[in-house]
Amino acid sequence: MANNFDEKTMKNEGVTPTHTEVLSPNTPTAEIKGELTYDEKVIQKIIGTAIDKIDGLLTVDGGFFSNIAEKIVNVDNVTSGIETEVGKKQVAVDMDVVIEYGRSIPEIADRIKQVIHEEVYKMTHLEVIEVNINVVDIKTQSEYEEDSETIQDKVTNAAKTTGHFASKQTEKAKNAVSEGADKLQEEKEPRVE
């Protein structure tokens, strides 16, 4: 409607509108100019989500400050610990990982590279040219689970335990008060007639 208004206004003023080639809805998208780019976070999220279920990979290590933040509250940041360099056609990846103790580290690294390459290409058509994996630790599954408990989890568990204890103590106090009231009632009754 705005174009019609402009054309009418121009005609009324005696100005001939100039038009560039108008693309029809059937015009192939290849003829439409523009550029498709990806923010590094997008590629990191694709990678983090894709490698999340790789057997033997316990976690991608986000470094000291990221780990501290994750220890305080439950956060699910799949991009933590994944660094990317994203170009117009290619991607390079660096990551620090923790592998499960007793597992074949080279096999897990190969699986990580394969999954990253497949998922990034499938979703973006960018070529993954490099995946640098630095193994910063190995842990047993139980060590990892113990280390993964956050302060938030500990506080929640302590609050539940404290709440349960407080409920028991309140019930004991109610019973004691009730017994004391019964004794007072007995003492008020005259002992003699």
UniProtKB/TrEMBL annotation:
Pfam families, sorted: Asp23
Annotated coiled-coil segments of the chain: none
Ranges of biased composition (kind: Polar residues): 15-28
Span list, region Disordered: 1-28, 149-193
Basic and acidic residues: bias regions: 1-11, 169-193
UniProt record similarity statement: Belongs to the asp23 family.
The protein, known as: Stress response regulator gls24 homolog
Lineage: Bacteria, Bacillati, Bacillota, Bacilli, Lactobacillales
